[in-house]
Amino acid sequence: MFDDDFHDRLHTVLLALCAPGPQPLDLLVRLARRELRDARVGEDAVRRMVDLSALLVGRPDGSITTLLHLLEGQVLTHRVTSPTAGRTDLWTREGLEPLFASAATGEVHLADGRPLRAAEHGHQALLGPPGWLPEAGVGDYLGFAVRRGRVAVELVDPDTFPGLVAEQEVRAVLSRHLHVFHGLDDLVPRRLQLCQALGNAVLERPTLLADPVPPLEELLHRPLDVAEQDHFARNIAAWCEDTVSFVVAGMPEYLHGELEHRARRYGMSFDQFIVAVLSHLAWRTPFAEDLGPWESWSDESSPTDDASVTALPAPVPPT
Question: What is the pLDDT of residues 170-191, one digit of tens each?
């Protein structure tokens, strides 16, 4: 087992060595061992570091690069929550986690060469020099484009977002890679899992975020809570609140598979997706509206006695 100090030093060295671009594994091992003067630096140590790092990404050809280098040509978006005029701090959410993690660990520069850094005291915010933020109001979108290894920040018109079909494609790729880390919270913190998923998603589709799309937290369903329903503490909390559980007996296997597939596409757990679908059916269907307001129901009357109820057409049997 390696101590934390060794891991930190190895991680820092690997980030510096990979900053110019992808590097072969054997070369990284030799250079890192020479830099640290530590015989513990070997292929296994480097591979494990890449597996657990949010900022180092292993490529299919075996080479290793940084997340920031991999994001070249991509645009991360952020919805502003507080007016930016005169401010040097921008409080971030999941959509900017790759930049926040990069700034917290290494050097990130703006397009003009000035540094961008993570806030102190554990605050989830990015800090830059005066004037680095365009003037934006609450609800406006900012785009963070990585170009030639630097970050350009500019206002984004939401009318230029590519539309639901393209956004669903981005959501599906990200959700699939984020689902891979289900259950690994003890090894990789949830926020860093999001960075790893994005790195792998961009490897699969290099133009994934070439055009601005809504922030990651708006595309994905609770992206930092993919495996939350499996945690014992959350189950205890659910038992103490107004929730119930039930089992569906006799569900066709193909239906179960389809529901699981759709849940993964949206970055949701199976249980969360089922609750969402049932809620939609209960309160958002024409049948539910035909029943009239809930307050008009009583034990003495039946909804079918109401003249406003429209008869539903008889179901057509499949052919």
Answer: 988 988 887 655 444 445 566 7
